[in-house]
Amino acid sequence: MRRALIIARNTIRESIRNKILYVILIFAVIIMLISGSMSHFESQVQTKILKDMTYTTISFFGIVLSLFITIEQVPNELDRKTIYFLLTKPLYRFEFLLGKFLGVTTVLFTAMALMSLLLCLLLGVNSEAVDANLFKGLAMLFAKLTIFVSVLIFFSTFLSKILNVALSFFVYLFGHVGDYLQYSFTEGGSQLVSGLLKFCQLLLPNFRNFDVQQSVVHDVQIGNAFMGVLFTYAALYSLLFLLLGHLIFRRRDL
Fold it and tell me: How many domains does the chain contain in total?
């Protein structure tokens, strides 16, 4: 575990050098513009719109940040030949992938924390109390993105960057609309396609489970037990993709 933490620390340093903070600055400007454009709404309506739009923005930038940080991690090590130096050390390939995952998710968590802090400040300016439900919703969003990061790392062990992005986004999108597609083909009589989609649903993560944006906006309380189940779900899927990546990565002749 100590060796994985060393890899994570180096990953954090590399991510910061990639000027990720500029993305946070862009986010801040967008939120400030949004906040200033809603001053004519009633306070309660303004708060709901602010929560809705900023949650969507955090979700969007979270995906962009995950992709931007993760997509380069394994390929860069291969291109720069640093992977050969690392693997000459007493370092298992799973520790290498785990370190990359921990490093990326740490940077992602920090970025989301800064964006969430800005959201809290904006709510404070509007004289609205920041409740625990908001933080629960943002935590669920982070849990969903950790699965997405593990998917990106998994595909990066054997695919090019373009194919990695394409398949990772397929997994992400299918995790949101897979049940709708499966239902549509079932109602349309396409049993073969419906069965194939149902099989994919069993294998791939269901990201719709983490969609609690409406609960955050309308102050519908998110249960602690529900959160615990989904955090476990996210941890298990992340571990699964890292293990699958390890099985493929260790077969590569490096």
Answer: 1
